[in-house]
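Re: that chain you flagged

S.,

Sorry for the slow reply, it's been a week of failed gels. I finally had a moment to sit down with the sequence you sent. For the record, here it is as I used it:
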Amino acid sequence: MFRILESQAPAKQTATDAISVLSNRLQSATLLEDRRAAILGLRSFAKNYPASVASGSLRDLIGSVRKDAEDVDTLKVVLETLLMLFSPDENSPEASEEIVLWLADEFTQVKTPAIYARPDRTQECIFTAPLGISRLVGVLSDVREPVRNEALVLLIALTPSSAELQKLVAFENAFDRVFELIEAEGSLSNGSEVVVDCLSLLANLLRLNVSNQTYFRETGCVKKLAALLTDVTNPSAPEEEIAAWSIARRDKNLWGLLAIIQLFLVKGSILKTNQTAFWQAGIMEKVLLVAFSKDFDVPVIAKALETCAGLIRGNSSLQEKFADVDVSWNAESVVTGTTNSASN
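Prediction finished late last night. Pasting the structure tokens below so you have them in one place:
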């Protein structure tokens, strides 16, 4: 008799099934009480099954923070659940550093659309949050590439217009972190799209911002620009032919760096100071090597000539020195191996 009853009893629900049901309830619930009940259920699983809870309901949990912000009880449960996901039980079968990586990546991705949708409000929130900027810039040094890259994209979206935010980001050692990231990604010659993003962030921080330009100059970053130019103008001979897409990417990176140099050469109170600093760092000679090289495409050469003009514009002492600069037309292309028939 008991065996017959046992065979007719419904199968026990697994934790994964229960989480799936609760996630669906949270997603479809229209009443606050129903959402709170679903979140309470998910909270009971968050410590031991962080991956299952995060994969099924993370976006809805984050959405509840906005949707139910006025209800303190619901908000408390949501935040407790999210904290549990970041610090799961060590004995959990789903405990893994990858969970924290994925969560951090998700949270960073959520912030970027918020900046584009409501830039002023989002900037205000980040600006006023204790250590908000400091922690965000610190993620640029995170060893987990997806999180680091999302933080870079977020900072680009955050810094195009607010001079105060630009200053705060710069004074959190952002320049050094960006140059370290460029080097780690292969510099200008071999850098990926991450290098393009790094150059975009530098441009945001330096464009028409006298304070940041001064800080950049006084912290020795001009020499780091010169080092990047040296790397791209004096490459080692390749063991095999360089692919066309790699050359195009290198030219794009170099064009972006030249554009950053030009940001320092806008008419203003610190123009001559900037020109002198760049001259002393050897930037002029390196840019001229680009302008007279066969290794670079026409737009890059044009940008290099334009940059050279900006480096001496309105500066009679540097113009005199420029007349004595001796630059040779690149005798042989490192990329193609072709030889020029004439030199100056």
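What I noticed first: DSSP finds 19 helices and no strands in the chain.

Talk soon,
D.
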